[in-house]
Amino acid sequence: MKKNFYIMIFLIIVLFLLPAKLFPQRIYAFEQFLQNVRIKREKDLQSLGCYKFTFLREQIIREDTLSTLLTFRGQEYHNKNQPIVRMYETLLINGSPVDTLLKADTLLSRENIPDFYDENFYRYYMIRDLGKASLNNTDMRLLEFIPRGETSGLMKGMAWIDPKTYGIIKMALEPHPLPEGLTKMEIEIFNTYDEKGRIIRFGMQSLSHIITVDKQMEIRIRERYSQYENYPDSLCDSLNTHYSLQP
């Protein structure tokens, strides 16, 4: 009887102490994982230069029972993943070409929102490790991040990360809080890497889904990029200077 009592006491001590020893190790392993994601992100940013992409933007606007499909094609210039300008070549409305071309859109970088891999992340977000997840039949690690408080301009969502390269493959985002007048706004961003794990472009494909409060209007936007070309940084510098001076 006494022997069983001591065995029970020993098991209770083990159950209390073992998690205490493992928990800091789990925290350290997760912090190291995030640090590797930050290092990979920094390497990706350094590897990017001045690029021109061909883009295709499809925008469906549904209002009551009427749906309109807008299709835009053109070129977009980026410098180290910072969009500079988008130049339109064709515009189609419900499949019919429109002669009037749009003016070039200035896409100069705005203040970056802190991301979960940012060193200052914990000032803005809480993060949760959701473990393994499959994306396109490939094993990923899935993370969830939620803004602290009601700070405007932040995003909540999830990130799919390649556990081998630490590259961010996909992000599903939603503004937090939602802009006034909307009941739903989902944004999916897919990053594209080459066969050696080097970044081609962040957000190579994106999809947005927006629904208004009265649910009378719905907007779906899908953007795809292809045919990327590398140019000297001086070209992007001149474009940046030119469009930053535009009114």
How would you summarize the topology of this molecule?
Blueprint: H1 2-47, E1 50-63, E2 66-79, E3 82-93, E4 96-97, E5 105-106, H2 121-124, E6 125-135, E7 138-147, E8 154-161, E9 168-176, E10 182-193, E11 199-212, E12 217-231, H3 233-244
Antiparallel strand pairs: 1-2, 1-12, 2-3, 3-4, 3-5, 6-7, 7-8, 8-9, 9-10, 10-11, 11-12
Structure description:
The structure is a single chain. With 247 residues, the chain is an alpha+beta fold. The chain has a single domain (34-244), classed as outer membrane lipoprotein receptor (LolB), chain A. The chain is 25% helix and 50% strand. The protein has helices at 2-47, 121-124, 233-244, and strands spanning 50-63, 66-79, 82-93, 96-97, 105-106, 125-135, 138-147, 154-161, 168-176, 182-193, 199-212, 217-231. Strands 1, 2, 3, 4, 5, 6, 7, 8, 9, 10, 11 and 12 form a twelve-stranded antiparallel sheet that branches. β10 and β11 form a beta hairpin. The model is unreliable at 13-17 (pLDDT under 50).
